[in-house]
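Fill in residues.
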């Protein structure tokens, strides 16, 4: 399924990136850092997230519980529970996004993905005063209420 040499390559790339990312962002952290660091490193969490997308599994929970925790003990010896791992994923979304944006972008194939999640604008009686997405979106109405409709497509 997953070539274990590939796991090492991905982890090394992510670990180098995370070291540089931490060096660049250390001055911009707001609040106090935790006195007790998480058991799994930022590099491990990001690597497992990337491996899931390369694995062919459809459900992340099954991938993590039945594949990573059972068959990848040598690569990731200090795995945490599934619930804790999803919390770690949420706290590492920025470095994951930056890694994928800077290190993993390939050539554009012409296929675009659009998030169709509606963004609630405001209460209907204040809809005319809204200036949130003034120049980049137009106002639309559906059966659920008023929403902003993007004027551009992200690739």
């Amino acid at each position: 399924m997953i070539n274990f040499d590939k796991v090492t390559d991905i982890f090394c790339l992510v670990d180098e990136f995370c070291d540089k990312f931490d060096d660049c962002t250390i001055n911009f952290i707001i609040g106090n850092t935790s006195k007790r660091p998480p058991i799994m490193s930022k590099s491990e969490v990001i690597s497992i997230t990337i491996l899931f997308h390369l694995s062919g599994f459809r459900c992340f929970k099954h991938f993590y519980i039945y594949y990573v925790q059972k068959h990848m003990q040598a690569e990731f010896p200090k795995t945490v529970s599934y619930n804790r791992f999803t919390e770690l994923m949420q706290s590492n979304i920025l470095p994951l996004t930056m890694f994928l944006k800077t290190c993993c972008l390939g050539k554009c194939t012409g296929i675009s993905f659009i998030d169709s999640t509606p963004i609630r604008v405001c209460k209907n009686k204040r809809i005319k005063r809204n200036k949130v997405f003034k120049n980049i979106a137009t106002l639309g109405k559906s059966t659920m209420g008023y929403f902003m409709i993007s004027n551009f497509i992200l690739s």
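The longest helix spans residues 4-25.
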